[in-house]
């Protein structure tokens, strides 16, 4: 299959249907991922391009649509007639002459449906022998793009948005016109492969002047970004360059890829416009920002109070376990620290929905300072995550980092409630309880023995043996020893309880921070990460659409 050759002896890479489809799919994915964070005007243009890709695909057939576009007085209608070989387009001295597009169609293949889609009413069938190089060409003569009539300019721009190949017709007087270069050529840098530049009315120049003028026009085209565009010098009056122009148009038709090349250039241009609204990379949040946020959330939802309550509850229970058995009930009369917060029941014992309905937690509300610390941590996270992002993306990150306060407070409270704060009693509690009972029973035996000897022994009512340990009676040894052992066990239990309370507090703090972290992930970090992920997907898909 021949390739549509453009430029000085070079050839543009052919665009396959698969590559066009891949670029269009990537652009579609980018629009879906970017959503409201992409600039609305560029999104509208991109959607119009995708719609055009679909519509043009339905009208591809065997036709290639080429448009002659130029400024007033460039002689494009005359050149159009010279290529057609007949007076099809109206020419004259009055300007502007062309008000509506005129179409010339080569070949037997019907082009009515395609021209209906292009909304071109004036049509001419070029009669030639079957199998000529131009069979399948639909050549359009457009209104002047610099016409004084705004309707003419609008019509020219409308049709230009649909054609497959552009033929920019200029002349020695207007070849450097800023409107041609700035408004059209420079804005179409992706369209090298479907662009032909014609320097018409070349018969007005000498050979030297034509060389200088053509060289200067090439320089301007290079500046505009059309690195492979060449200049064909023509004259509709003398026929200069018309055969070369026909040959170039024949190459466009023979390649049968001009429509895809134009559409692919449209897709890449739309992706370029959208890409300006996307940064080149995303920030890696790391752990520092999330740790600061979780710490601030933990303070706001009362984690320090819960940790203190757990430590105090452990200390209270441990002291009671290691205390004197007969006075242990006094310790239990003290208020339960976890009970005051309504956190004394094991977490799995009540369904989560029931907890949410009855609001089990009695944790104090966050202070203004704690709420301000959460807002500050969230904003710092948003600032870090949005560094280098365009405004719309930065605003999306900021919104994701600040969820509704009521929902955040409720989820944090439920996270505390769902965290199990009750743990299995340490083994040493049972050991100390047993030892305390042994000490208490020993003291009771010694007390009973001593009282019996003192009160009942002298009267002879009950005679118990008198056993001595050195100079001291065994009964007194049992009494004093039992009391002393219980007191020492109680002191030891208090020391161990303080150590255990600190450890239990630290373990509880880790579990609560993990619970708070899950809320932070769900309501803050997750949404922020989702925005960054959408940005990354948008960026990669736009880059794929531009390749």
Note the topology.
Blueprint: H1 17-34, H2 40-58, E1 64-70, H3 76-84, E2 102-106, H4 112-118, E3 122-126, E4 137-141, H5 150-160, E5 165-170, H6 178-185, E6 195-199, H7 207-224, E7 231-233, H8 242-255, H9 258-275, H10 288-300, H11 303-322, H12 328-332, H13 337-340, H14 352-358, H15 368-385, H16 391-400, H17 405-418, H18 427-456, E8 468-469, E9 472-473, H19 474-546
Parallel strand pairs: 1-4, 1-5, 2-3, 5-6, 6-7
Antiparallel strand pairs: 2-4, 8-9
Helix pairs in contact: 1-2, 1-9, 1-19, 2-9, 9-19, 10-15, 10-19, 11-19, 15-16, 16-19, 17-19, 18-19
Structure overview:
The protein contains 19 helices and nine strands. It is an alpha/beta fold and 547 residues long. The protein folds into three domains: 16-60 and 256-277; 63-239, Rossmann fold (3-Layer(aba) Sandwich); 288-426 and 495-546, no CATH class. Helix 2 (40-58) runs antiparallel to helix 9 (258-275), helix 10 packs antiparallel against helix 15 and helix 18 (427-456) runs antiparallel to helix 19 (474-546). The strands form two sheets. The protein has a seven-stranded mixed beta sheet with strand order 3-2-4-1-5-6-7, with helices on both faces. Strands 8-9 form a two-stranded antiparallel sheet. The longest helix is centred in the last third of the chain and has 73 residues, at 474-546.
Structure characteristics:
single chain, 547 residues, alpha/beta, Rossmann fold, 3 domains, seven-stranded mixed β-sheet, two-stranded antiparallel sheet, 19 helices, 7% strand, disordered N terminus
């Amino acid at each position: 299959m021949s390739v549509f050759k453009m430029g000085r002896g070079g050839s543009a890479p052919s665009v396959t249907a698969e590559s066009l489809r891949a670029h269009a799919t990537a652009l579609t994915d980018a629009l879906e991922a970017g959503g409201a964070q992409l600039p609305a005007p560029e999104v509208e243009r991109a959607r119009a391009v995708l719609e055009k890709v679909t519509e043009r695909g339905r009208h591809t057939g065997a036709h290639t649509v080429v448009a002659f576009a130029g400024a007033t007085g460039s002689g494009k209608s005359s050149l159009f007639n010279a290529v057609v070989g007949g007076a099809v387009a109206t020419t004259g001295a009055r300007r502007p002459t062309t008000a509506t597009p005129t179409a010339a169609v080569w070949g037997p293949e019907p082009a009515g449906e395609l021209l209906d889609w292009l909304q071109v009413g004036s049509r001419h069938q070029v009669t030639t022998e079957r199998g000529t190089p131009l069979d399948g060409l639909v050549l359009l003569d457009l209104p002047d793009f610099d016409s004084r009539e705004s309707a003419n300019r609008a019509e020219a721009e409308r049709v230009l948005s649909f054609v497959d190949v552009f033929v920019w017709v200029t002349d020695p007087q207007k070849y450097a016109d800023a409107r041609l270069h700035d408004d059209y050529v420079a804005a179409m840098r992706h369209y090298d492969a479907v662009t032909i530049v014609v320097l018409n009315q070349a018969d007005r120049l000498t050979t030297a002047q034509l060389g200088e003028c053509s060289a200067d026009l090439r320089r301007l085209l290079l500046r505009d970004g059309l690195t492979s565009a060449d200049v064909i010098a023509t004259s509709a009056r003398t026929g200069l360059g018309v055969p070369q122009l026909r040959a170039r148009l024949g190459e466009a038709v023979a390649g049968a890829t001009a429509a895809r090349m134009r559409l692919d250039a449209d897709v890449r241009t739309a992706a370029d416009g959208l890409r300006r609204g996307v940064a080149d990379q995303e920030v890696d949040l790391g752990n520092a920002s999330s740790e600061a946020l979780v710490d601030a959330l933990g303070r706001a939802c009362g984690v320090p109070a819960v940790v203190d309550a757990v430590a105090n509850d452990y200390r209270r229970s441990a002291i009671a376990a290691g205390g004197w058995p007969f006075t242990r009930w006094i310790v239990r009369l003290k208020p339960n620290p976890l009970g005051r917060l309504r956190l004394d029941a094991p977490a799995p014992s009540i369904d989560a929905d029931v907890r949410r309905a009855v609001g089990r937690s009695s944790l104090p509300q966050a202070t203004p300072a704690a709420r301000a610390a959460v807002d500050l941590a969230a904003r710092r996270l948003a600032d870090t995550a949005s560094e280098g992002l365009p405004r719309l993306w930065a605003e999306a990150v900021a919104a994701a980092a600040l969820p509704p306060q009521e929902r955040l407070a409720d989820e944090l409270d439920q996270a505390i409630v769902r965290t199990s704060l009750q743990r299995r009693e340490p083994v040493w509690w049972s050991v100390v309880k047993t030892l305390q009972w042994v000490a208490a029973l020993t003291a009771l035996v010694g007390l009973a023995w001593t009282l019996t000897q003192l009160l009942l022994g002298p009267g002879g009512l009950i005679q118990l043996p008198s056993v001595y340990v050195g100079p001291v009676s065994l009964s007194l040894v049992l009494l004093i020893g039992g009391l002393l052992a219980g007191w020492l066990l109680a002191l030891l239990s208090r020391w161990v309880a303080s150590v255990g309370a600190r450890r239990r507090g630290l373990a509880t703090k880790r579990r609560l921070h993990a619970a708070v972290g899950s809320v932070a992930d769900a309501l803050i970090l997750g949404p922020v990460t989702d925005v960054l992920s959408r940005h990354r997907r948008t960026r990669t898909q736009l880059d794929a659409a531009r390749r």
